[in-house]
Amino acid sequence: MKRALTFAAVGEASTGLALLIVPGLVGRLLLGEELTGVAISVARVAGIALIGLGVACWPGSDADSSPSRALRAMLCYSLFTTLYLAYLGIGGERVGRLLWPAVAIHAILTTLLVRAWLKEHRAGQ
């Protein structure tokens, strides 16, 4: 089972990384169409989510519980989504009404997840 989980984690995280770096190419290879416009931003957020999924599915030791992996995965997703959405807003390319509220919500969630991770990390020492 560990091999299958590792294979799945690497595959999802690799696809996520590809979506972050070359979303147009991934769109063309997977869907037969070049991604353009807002689809590129959406694909990059999906890429961040796939990286988080890869982190969550990465097999760990017996001491590395599922809630611990899930916490790291959500922290990874929320942090990088916050940064990417803020980058979009600062660049001014794509700014809808809910962009900055989404950045704020993800920033709050990231803060809460960091606090939970630090608490867990300190308890494990």
Notes on the structure:
By secondary structure, the chain is mostly helical. It has one domain (2-124). 81% of the residues lie in helices and 0% in strands. It contains five helices and no strands. It is flat. The model has no long low-confidence stretch (mean pLDDT 90).
The largest sheet, given as strand count, sense and whether it forms a barrel, is:
none
How many helices? The count is 5
Q: Please, how many domains? A: 1
Extended strand count:
0
Query: How much of the polypeptide forms β-strand, as a percent range?
Result: under 5%
**Span between N and C termini?**
29 Å
Jot down its keywords.
125 residues, mainly alpha, 5 helices, flat
Quick structural gist:
The chain has helices at residues 2-21, 23-31, 38-57, 66-91, 99-124. By secondary structure, it is mainly alpha-helical.
What is this structure's SSE topology?
Blueprint: H1 2-21, H2 23-31, H3 38-57, H4 66-91, H5 99-124
Helix pairs in contact: 1-2, 1-3, 3-4, 4-5
